[in-house]
Design a protein that fits this description.
- This protein is α/β, with parallel strands linked by helices.
- The chain contains 16 helices and 20 strands.
């Protein structure tokens, strides 16, 4: 299918400003950026009065937790897990997880996300929702210690069955949950299996002060230093949160080329703190943005996450340039694509045609003195006019192209009546 996206102001390849340019798409890739002359399109999509840019990458999610939205709020992390989340999760069936994942995919499509990075269980079942949706997904089965190594075996089976499926839209990674839920032996085996496959390794790290302190008590090391000792840190490592990391931790992360997945809204809501993102960026760490699950956010809106990432650190550091707007936009898109090794890093030839169009029609998007600043500081998910992933339109001007949104909402509400009590 050859598609010409016409009439938009388009983010330049450097990600620094919007310029007038049409974008031609062919075989899931960007074929041409310019006036589109000579491109014989099968379809022309009008994006007049829109901004066109690389779609967002939600770098840390737990899709089925959309069911728990509003059911576990205003408590610290470990209490939240032990008294609400884990008991509700015990009631979940594989079918419940599938329907909840459909709801999550719909929410992400509506908010301009084309690719995401997920850790949960029932992954082998709810991956069907990702395939249906048209999104890209880097997914892993959460690995914890306990009854032997069968969780690692499940992760291997998931990789063997699904990695590279759906024309490469599905990637399987390995997901040891955290230092406090995985033994040394489990971490080492998971590391070895990920290394054999050149797969991503996704793990929670120093999310709370309590977690950080308990790790030091157990190993006389911070979680980052412990992961370094076990050989877990590399350019394939995705470290979720990193709220309590030290300067030495940041230096280690940078030296190994590991990626940090920043979840500012979840970290604030759970009272976990504020990750030292300006220090990480200054050290050269690739920092991507994620929403975390809808139980701790309580949505999957990357516009909110991006705006918060841009403003939170300004206030905390008392520095209005701590995280500039263009940096926040890259954290929400290009940096996530780099970390996940999927998605669109820039609107340029041969990049993946993972694109979002943002409408300029609403009052809060006018005047357009600086379109990039409007995206970061003014826009919201209600401004998304089009979501294209892998060259396929998933959403256009109010219409979902791949999902039955009314059915999904009804089924999710019915499950919540049973599970969230």
């Amino acid at each position: 299918m050859k598609i010409l996206l016409k009439g938009a102001l388009t983010l330049n390849a450097e990600g620094s400003s919007f310029v007038r340019a049409n974008v031609a798409v062919e075989n899931g890739k960007i074929a041409l950026v310019g006036d589109g002359a000579g491109f014989e399109a099968d379809e022309v999509i009008s994006l007049d009065n829109c901004l066109l840019m690389p779609a967002f990458v939600n770098a840390h999610t737990h899709l089925p937790m959309t069911l728990f939205r509003g059911a576990a709020d205003d408590m610290p992390l470990l209490t939240w897990l032990e008294t609400r989340i884990w008991p509700m999760e015990d009631k979940l069936s594989a079918k419940d997880a599938l329907i909840a994942a459909r709801l999550a995919c719909a929410e992400m499509i509506r908010s301009g996300v084309s690719a995401f990075n997920d850790m949960y269980f029932f992954t082998d079942t709810f991956i069907e929702a990702v395939c249906e949706s048209g999104l890209r997904g880097a997914l892993c089965r959460a690995i914890t210690s306990g009854d032997g190594d069968f969780r690692v075996d499940e992760a291997i089976a998931l990789y063997d069955r699904w990695h590279g499926a759906e024309n490469g839209r599905i990637a399987i990674s390995f997901g040891p949950h955290a230092e406090y839920t995985c033994s040394k032996e489990t971490l080492l085996r998971t590391r070895d299996e990920a290394n054999k496959r050149d797969a991503l390794l996704h793990i929670h790290c120093s999310e709370s002060q309590e977690e950080h302190a308990q790790c030091i008590e157990r190993h006389a090391k911070t979680p980052v230093a412990w992961f370094e000792e076990l050989g877990l840190l590399s350019e394939r490592t995705l470290l979720a949160h990193c709220v309590q990391v030290t300067d030495d931790d940041i230096a280690l992360i940078a030296a190994r080329g590991a990626n940090v997945l920043h979840n500012p809204q979840s970290n604030l809501k759970l009272g976990s703190g504020i990750a030292p993102v300006p220090k990480m960026l200054k050290a050269g760490v690739n920092v991507a943005l994620g929403t975390d699950g809808a139980a701790s956010n309580n949505n999957l809106d990357m516009f909110e996450e991006m705006r918060l990432a841009a403003t939170l650190h300004k206030g905390f550091m008392r520095d209005p340039v701590a995280v500039p707007a263009d940096t926040a936009l890259k954290m929400a898109s290009a940096n996530g694509a780099k970390a996940l090794r999927m998605g669109c890093k820039a609107i340029a030839e041969s990049e993946a045609a993972d694109l979002v169009a943002i409408s300029l029609e609403h009052p809060h998007m006018n005047p357009v003195n600086d379109a990039l600043k409007n995206v970061v500081y003014s826009a919201g998910m209600g401004d998304v006019a089009m979501n294209m992933t892998d060259g396929k339109v998933l959403y256009y001007k109010g219409e979902y192209k791949t999902l039955d949104i009314e059915k999904i909402k009804f089924e999710a509400n019915e499950i919540a009546k049973r599970v969230c009590v």
